[in-house]
Amino acid sequence: MQSLSPAMHNAVFARLGIDAHYDALDVAPSEFSETIDRLRHSEYVGLSVTMPHKDAAFLECDEVS
Prior knowledge:
The chain is an all-alpha fold. It has one domain (5-60). The chain has 3 helices and no strands.
């Protein structure tokens, strides 16, 4: 996984004194739904989704605006 998002977000959180942490999770398509269910019951309060999971993520949404 080569994402720069964790480093960028965590640097901003630290600079602004925000008590948060951005993690990158490498999830196989076959494990996506199970992973979302596990995250729903964890301390995570949000997530960013990248390909190839965007369509599957849409189907997991409680609400779409």
